[in-house]
């Protein structure tokens, strides 16, 4: 199979990471690359690490430019995907790396994004129960948010196995690339190096309803979530520390068994050996997920910690993994579980 | 008043930070500086940032060397302070920056530190209810751990005002200096830059019982704690994200009022204006504590976040603040709330 | 003496650092604080590390606001100082932290800054030969650039003692705060963390003529300079690696002697013991300069390396040091040689 | 072709990087992995980023364990390769990532490494004139040092085209992984984050004679080198800033032409478009080399700057590239020019 893929939004971090991965994907040929304010510029000036594409020039993001591809990836600002997608034919696989089609609840969408709800597409987190079936043959895919990817993978086995109460407390640290490439003073290197800081505290982060949606689906009942994201002084990576009160009768063994079963056949998720904990450095640049879980008997809580690369498994790698499934390719094609460390 | 101070353990990070602050303290004259494996070396080779002390030579840590001072600071490995302290006279103010005399419960000590309990000294966290009275005139002071300092300050007002349930969930990120200066592979720059990782998960960290002790005292009843420390890619700073389930009737206003009252007269703690969140960079090198609190109505939790410099307010600055109280000096002498940023 | 000082440009990095130091200066009272686009904002929102000034509100940068102070510090974009300064009376001490009055050669100014030359003020690098005399009693001071500070201090003794040929090669690494607080994509944390990159290569950096001016003055003859600045992944600090071909007869001893003499009485410069090399971490947040020099017999070159904090000795600390001299205060008042490390 | 490869020294940074690349090499099967102090340990505990090899156990580094492979990579401490290599048969391709067989001059070896010279093997920097011919079919390969790789590629075209005087001045910044994985206090994260510092100043660094050897070969005459390495606060990457006095008649065009010709057919080296400068982030994790060159007419010097990943092109990638040539494979097999950024 030879797949011709276009990337709308090729100058940003998500688009750049996707191109990095597409270049290594044996079945993909890279077609049109588009940008808006950067249209007309050489990619080498915008993404100097993508040496083989240095002389490619960005085109404007229009339906004409994006036409004639098998797959179109949308790495656009939130709220802009629907207008582009509806002009692409129903036979084109459209993979939206923005938030537009992730949420099922229109009210949640409107509350957190402030615009009309565009709809819901098959959700590109294959490891969740039932997700692969929805993705197989799909022509539209909503790629999950980076935090929801890390958090949902760390916690869904506990909810799916009915081990914990429906109130999760999550504190996650993200590298700065999660905040995008738009220049804002608080994202300057001078500000972020040497500093940890929270944001969107108290349920205000847009990824909160997406996490609630995933965990509630796993639990088969509403799960409440306290989610605090923090900005960490590193370019990439998410470390999600998640916990919930254990239900009666839960033991360290039952917790470990549930996680071992949940991830037994997963190509990208590794439940670490007991005593070893995830580090974001170990998954740097890879599609791997490292998970560890513990039962704190004194506090009566199950603590699950997951590490991903926010740009790879958390965005572009997850997008490719779902594309592989939708196209009937081996799910791991063009993806790696090998991190770049140290 | 002119105070002559000795520092045992002057080659490590805690000792170095203490010297940095002592050099700026108008009432202190720096006396003996001791080390063990580093005795005989110039301080300039070990602490090149302490330019005025570059030509001082470390002496061995013995009672003879430490005799004849008004104050002796102990920055020794855990378990070594008692033997040194008992050879110093009862009129000398001994400030222990190690853990030896922090815990009241001998069983906790033995479980977490694996040696016989040495006793309990007045606890050097002046902001806690009743702490200043115990410190005034004291001749022995136990300086709190860095995590307990950040966490206790962030959460005690919620417990003292009976706003939250007695089960706290804490995830804290610390700079690497909190792990000390002993060279271990996982603390190499190559390993920590670009990486977030947890450790001591599931209640295993030694600071857990100290946090429990402080919060329980504030609540007047046992408080359970789920504490997950993480290592962040920065040299200094702790960001503690703490939460607990709100009790019935709690409102955003009642939460804010409780915190405003708790810190109204505190010289070092600043409850930030609503909407502004702490960042470790803002307190870098200072004794300041920045706190923010929110009530997440959807999740039903109070979230309190505190930022400190682990070496300053979290160790050496806290030690000096308590020394000032013990000696009857103005509590803020030689200390600053001004961080070094960016 | 009680000195009332205004700061124009209080929201940027230079202004913020100056305020940090002024707060600790025993003879200074902080008067008006101004900004342009930030006028009307609380300083606590812009400089959250300056806790004692958190509730101060920025005023617009006008002659009226700046009137009535003993000292006015200008931390404005290049080219804006002259217009402000000429509206301040001749009895006011005006300290310009911009470039406007540094260069003696109008042609150099116009070539590198592209606007008419405003003039030349006494140059605020007290350690250079003759500088203190020019600063004593001055009412106008041009604060040197951060790179010229580091480079000139590292190299002038070699030129003053006629040890090296008049062609210097300089490669310097700077922390990102040297590039200021304006948000530009290449200064994002995501871009700078993990990356070293050069800029202004081939003589294009605006600090080149200032370095030439200083070294030529020390040599008493024109000195050519090859200067390559690089951006390093750290918030602060400059490490300047400078070398020049040794003249005939030069020995390791004659080099060391020249440097030892040059800095013998300097309160802020420390020539390190042989074998110890400067590190920017050692001078973090301080006005200290650490210098080491070596004679590479095989290559026939003298190599001098200097480390400073670009915001302190390189900008705001240097400004205060010169202010002290101009006002007849002890030169070291309110300044420290103690770095914040680790 | 199917090549079975063993790696001696699989627990260090060079060995880990090599395994990361070997896992992606389509013609290589990974055989024995050995360590010394770490023999018996799971690789997953030592190199947690190499997820596919997590359950492999390190064996001791003996001739028996290393026997029966087509290729043996030696990532051993300097001075240990000869003893291992001589017990491996002449038909085995031995690729030494240590320094033992790089230098041609026995006196240089003894002066800088303090042990008897083991000999000289074909030098694994294919881009140097004549190097590929020496590598084709070779059974022994000496992989260059990381600094010599960056510096030689940046400067050899200027010497090969006789553009510059035979005195080069080089200042290079390296990420901390270049210093290895052995835990030393000055390499702690607390020490290196936020700090730039030089070392081996004045010609003392072991890579100096190797640089001299390469540049002199390119020039066809002895080239003197002043080399100052600096440690930068990043895990990976080398930025080498190199310059030399231009010979009479040199122009910007002649310089650019020489570099364009030198790298025209090189698969891994990219001479950047004019005005764009290398950044280590752009080559992170890749075998790419980014080069820019300028002629500073005022200073009369040619300035060439190169960026590599010290562990990839600077060590393990360079080793694989040379292995490919020796085995008659396409030189780029298993290697990429795509960096991981941001």
Description:
Chains A, B, C, D: It holds the Pfam family Semialdhyde_dhC_1. Chains A, B, C, D: This is N-acetyl-gamma-glutamyl-phosphate reductase. Chains A, B, C, D: The active site is at residue 146. The structure is a homotetramer of 342-residue chains. By secondary structure, the first copy, chain A, is an alpha/beta fold. Chain A is 28% helix and 22% strand. The first copy, chain A, contains 11 helices and 13 strands. In chain A, the strands form 2 sheets. A 7-stranded mixed sheet of chain A has the order 8-9-7-10-13-12-11. A 6-stranded parallel sheet of chain A has the order 3-2-1-4-5-6. In chain A, 63% of the residues are buried. The A-D interface holds A 13, 16, 20, 23-24, 42, 44-45, 47-52, 54, 177, 181, 193-194, 235-236, 270, 272-273, 276, 279, 281-286, 288, 290, 336-342 and D 13, 16, 20, 23-24, 42, 44-45, 47-52, 54, 177, 181, 193-194, 235-236, 270, 272-273, 276, 279, 281-286, 288, 290, 336-342.
Q: What are the key terms here?
A:
homotetramer; 342 residues; alpha/beta; Rossmann fold; Dihydrodipicolinate Reductase, domain 2; 2 domains; seven-stranded mixed sheet; six-stranded parallel sheet; 11 helices; 28% helix; 22% strand; globular; AGPR_dimerisation_dom (chains A, B, C, D); arginine biosynthesis (chains A, B, C, D)
Q: Please outline the major beta sheet of chain A.
A: 7 strands, mixed
Please mark out the parts of chain A with pLDDT under 50 across 5 or more consecutive residues, or reply none: none
SSE pattern of chain A: EHEHEHEHEHHEHEHEHEEHEEEH
- Supply the CATH superfamily name of the largest domain in chain A: Dihydrodipicolinate Reductase, domain 2
Choose one word for the global shape of chain A.
globular
Distance separating the two termini of chain A:
36 Å
CATH domain fold name of the largest domain in chain A: Dihydrodipicolinate Reductase, domain 2
Total domain count of chain A? 2
Largest interface: A-B, 53 and 53 residues
């Amino acid at each position: 199979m030879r797949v011709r893929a276009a990337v709308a939004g090729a100058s940003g971090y998500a688009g750049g990471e996707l191109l990095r991965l597409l270049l290594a994907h044996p079945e993909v040929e890279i077609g049109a690359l588009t940008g808006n304010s950067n249209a007309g510029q050489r990619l080498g000036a915008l993404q100097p690490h993508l040496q083989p594409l240095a002389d490619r020039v960005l085109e404007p993001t229009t339906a004409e430019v994006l036409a004639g591809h098998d797959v179109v990836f949308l790495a656009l600002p939130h709220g802009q995907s629907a207008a582009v997608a509806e002009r692409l034919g129903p036979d084109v696989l459209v993979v939206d790396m923005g938030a537009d089609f992730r949420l099922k609840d229109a009210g949640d969408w409107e509350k957190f994004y402030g615009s009309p709800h565009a709809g819901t597409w098959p959700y590109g987190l294959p490891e969740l129960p039932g997700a692969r079936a929805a993705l197989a043959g799909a022509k539209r895919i909503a790629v999950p948010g980076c935090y929801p990817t890390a958090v949902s993978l760390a916690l869904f086995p506990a909810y799916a196995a009915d081990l914990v109460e429906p109130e999760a407390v999550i504190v996650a640290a993200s590298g700065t690339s999660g905040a995008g490439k738009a220049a804002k003073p608080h994202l300057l290197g001078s500000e972020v190096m040497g500093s940890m800081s929270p944001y969107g505290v108290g349920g205000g982060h847009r990824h909160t309803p997406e996490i609630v949606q995933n965990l509630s689906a796993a639990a088969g009942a509403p799960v409440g979530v306290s989610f605090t994201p923090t900005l960490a002084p590193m370019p990439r990576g998410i470390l999600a520390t998640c916990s919930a009160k254990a239900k009666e009768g839960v033991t360290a063994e039952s917790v470990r068994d549930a996680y071992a079963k949940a991830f037994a056949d997963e190509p990208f998720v590794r439940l670490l050996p007991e005593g070893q904990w995830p580090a974001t450095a170990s998954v740097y640049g890879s599609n791997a997920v490292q998970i560890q879980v513990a039962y704190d008997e004194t506090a009566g809580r199950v603590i699950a910690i997951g590490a991903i690369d926010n740009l790879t498994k958390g965005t572009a790698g997850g997008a490719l993994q779902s594309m592989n499934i939708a196209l009937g390719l081996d799910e791991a094609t063009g993806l790696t579980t090998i991190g770049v460390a140290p």
